[in-house]
Amino acid sequence: MQIHTPEWVKHAVFYQIFPDRFAIGKQPQSCLLKNPTWGEWQAPPTMQGYKGGDLWGVIEKLDYLQDLGINAIYFTPIFQSTCNHRYHTHDYYQVDPILGGNKAFKLLLEQAHQRDIKIVLDGVFNHASRGFYFFNDILENGPNSPWLDWFKIHDWPLSAYDGNLPANYEGWVNNRALPVFNHDNPDVKEYIMEIAEYWIEMGVDGWRLDVPFEITTPGFWQEFRDRVKAVNPEAYIVGEIWQDARHWLDGTQFDGVMNYLFTAPTIAFTAGNRVEMDYVRNPSYDPYPALLAPDYATKIQALLDLYPWEIQLTQLNLLASHDTARLLSIAHGDRASVELSTLLLLTFPGAASIYYGDEVGLAGALDPDSRRGFPAESDWDRELLEYHRRLIAIRHAYPALRTGTYRTIYARGEVYAFVRTLADVEILVAVNTSTESETLSLDLAELGINIQSKQLFGTAKLAQSSGNTFKIDLNPRSGCIVA
Question: Is the pTM of this model over 0.90?
């Protein structure tokens, strides 16, 4: 079958926002909480409590994001909840009042679209929360509730809060705070489909789907795609799948997944033995052991061979997320690891995703520490910010870096190089992860490459030798882009 994916995603640079931690609106707005008590913004994050970030603050930051080159935002959940991360959904039709409610979201959607910035929401459709009305009715009415078959009830009485007693219902990863939907119930399925349609009809540009592998009802995700695409054929559907996702990327379900199969080898190559194992051992990706260039090339080629090209172009490529430690902390504060990984991220096929704050040097260990408040401007790493801005601008300026073919041309020791080709435009990217200077000698005729020796990025020394030999002198822990 012919696979169709959203055209705009192939050209997107996403910015992932954890709403409670990105920005608090400075302009006074009508809200339910007149004198809220928030946790200190720069204090270490905790599992419970709020720091008060809201959508008004995001609206005020849209100019910053546009200047950075961002043209798509992925929000972790924004619906009404009683957790700062909002994966415990209370009401799928209401944006959390702490965030500004539906009023703030509608204004954000309008102003983002005026800037040609797309908005993708987090769909938590595997489970709800104890406070979700339908489940709360069961807690109040027991076997007399009309919503019994919406969840997986095993016995009575239910114990939603007392951990000394059996919960007697299925909670996600045995967490009684997260009752799992019974997706085999047609009414549950229809309810979720209507939620998906509702927000797409409002103008949302796509859904990121939380733990979609947990929903195994036959045909569920196929119908989800059909219903969403009927409203907006260009809506983006991206799943949280950490490993081989071929089952979901057959053209009938998702347009892409969060591409941790790119994340892991890229960190292992650029950060190498700097990786803090305590931060990466338990999450569902493996940015270790350290990789040399030939091993990295092998893993990247295997990844490119895994999915159809149309899917490759709409993968959501990332270096960190709310579910991982931040790369700066994983690499023990080594900025070069972040820079080299970012260079590889922004020159790889697919949509690039930047986790809020990574562009200004925000550190963070595992959850909840990876969800720190966005730093004050005085604490920004401005060189790193400019590094991101320049690379994003280059990606936007050269279509070959977005949709061009990808071919590895050099992988020896700690030096890796590849070429992106679109029509008659060829762009070469080279990376040296070594602490020593390295020189590439490339026979352009033998490789079938035609470049003009124009350096778009980096401080490498370029030299055209006799014949077709092209030399690139790379400084330690650096990379370049050449057209």
Answer: yes
